UniProtKB/TrEMBL annotation:
Its EC number is 2.7.4.3. This is Adenylate kinase. It holds the Pfam family ADK. GO terms for cellular component: cytoplasm. One of its GO terms (biological process) is AMP salvage. Its main location: cytoplasm. One of its GO terms (molecular function) is AMP kinase activity. Residues 37-66 are annotated as: NMP. It is found in: Cytoplasm. It comes from the Bacteria. It comes from Holospora elegans E1. Catalyzes the reversible transfer of the terminal phosphate group between ATP and AMP. Plays an important role in cellular energy homeostasis and in adenine nucleotide metabolism. AMP binds at R43, E64, Y65, L66, Q98, R161, R172. Monomer.
Amino acid sequence: MKKEIMKKGIVFFGPPGSGKGTQSILLSDRLNIPLVAMGQLLRTEVVQNTSLGKKIEDSLKRGEYLSTSDVMEVLKIQLDKFPDAWVILDGVPRSIEQAEAVEQYAFSGFLCIEAVVFLQISPEKVWDRIRNRLSCVHCQKDYCHKVDLCSNCGSKEFSKRSDDKEEVVLRRLNVFNEKIRSIFDFYNEQKKVYLIQADRDVEEVYSDIIACILPLMKK
């Protein structure tokens, strides 16, 4: 049996509304790298009323982080679908426990995190973006501006996400800030963190990201 090639991961990390989804999709589309968008996958589980969706629905609505075992279960299933050497991760890891669990994948020859793109943005800018955000009812793709047609599935139905209420957003920011230091230090000690200022034009942010990623892919 042919041995599976270890996947190389690019992680997008930052607070809610920092543009992780937008930038990870841009990178995925332009470099043709598979994207695992954990938040979208989990919301789809809820919409489809799966056993996992029923289990995690309340936690998502409250803006709480899910258990490491639930997140790793979804991640492993998604990664198994891709034969590609590189993969982009958006929304995982979100805690030091998840980071350590992902690290175990490297020891098993399955996945090694090569870069952590850390998007920095102020809380004020976060709320300014999120209050205008809409999500496609059918595929859960997010938009921070008004659109008439989903570019992903063609749907014309959009709604506010249940976790985009102001009190939930503030709770998610607090949770993120509680977790941020340990995860940042974890990857920074490995010299894998790339700090990107995210409160700028989408293409400007992307330009800085690609300047960090391309040299890694050419090694």
